[in-house]
Amino acid sequence: MATIAFIGLGNMGAPMARNLLAAGHHLTVFDISPQAIAPITAMGATAAKDPSSAAAAAVFVISMLPAGDHVRQVYLGPEGVIAAASPGAILIDCSTIDVATAREVNAAASAAGLDMLDAPVSGGVAGAEAATLTFMVGGEERAVAAAEPILRAMGKTVIHTGGPGNGQAAKICNNLILGVSMIAVCEAFVLAESLGLPAQTLFDVASASSGQCWSLTSYCPVPGPVPSSPANRGYAPGFTAAMMLKDLRLAEIAAADLAIPLGSHAAAMYAAFVANGGGGTDFSGIIQGIRRE
Ligand code: NAD
Fold first, then answer.
1. Containing domain of residue 265, as a range?
2. Mutation test of ligand 1: which of 7, 12, 245 has the most ligand atoms closer than 8 Å to its C-beta?
3. Last residue of a domain, which of 131, 163, 195?
4. Number of domains in the chain
5. What is the pTM of this model?
6. What are the residues facing 217 on neighbouring strands?
7. Which of 149, 167, 179, 215 could be joined to 138 by an S-S link, Cβ 3.0–4.6 Å?
């Protein structure tokens, strides 16, 4: 069993860390919030006073942080993980961050003789709890192979997407598809309502036709057709609209001069929904914003 440092014990990191403990690994953990640390140490993890102390004796360092700035703060500089990590340690950042930061931090690790992977996830809190996450992993093949058994204690699918930053690239492109397709599905249901076409009928037709997609058949934004979707529980998340907005903004940043007009429009719609108080709502709840327009 491996000695693992885990940094960032929030909604995603806490259940991921619990699954590593359940698999028998030794965990040293750090979070800036003492409340986040307590439940994990109660399960057998050791608390560290900062990221570098957590990393010092670890064979794998895993982080699950809000955004790129937090990742820089944790990994870079004289007090950071890269300066403290043991030779041969593999650094794995599972946060969803911008591609440029992922590549910059990877290059700093590489310059220090360490392998680093960007390994953002899909599957949300439910996937983190059930250890069914999908990991999209950018980095060197040998490091991916060494990390795979550790990732498999937290998820069921590990896809090597290429070199450094390509995990983030895959995550951002996937969520661009998801954000745009969810809005298209919501608009179709709102239009169907106005035309007197029952939601179940649209679902039956579109799910067996060329309109079929995950946003429709796995995560239907109206109550009824897919009983497990957040629409059946008042749009409790799931994956919040604020998170979707964050990921669409990352796609816009990554696109730079490349036009992604539907992605940009989707980002503007999510920004308006969040500004109207919808940030904590599941992202499929944007159908409520579309009905109001
Ligand atoms: P969260 O805000 O619940 O957790 C982040 C944790 O990081 C918090 O406990 C916070 O105290 C800690 N933290 C912040 N700065 C820190 C620092 N400098 N050092 C140590 N700890 C620090 O966020 P989350 O929902 O767990 O999401 C984490 C990442 O996973 C994000 O990048 C998010 O985009 C991505 N993600 C989230 C979901 C989801 O459904 N929540 C799904 C897929 C991907």
1. 169-292
2. 12
3. 163
4. 2
5. 0.94
6. none
7. 167
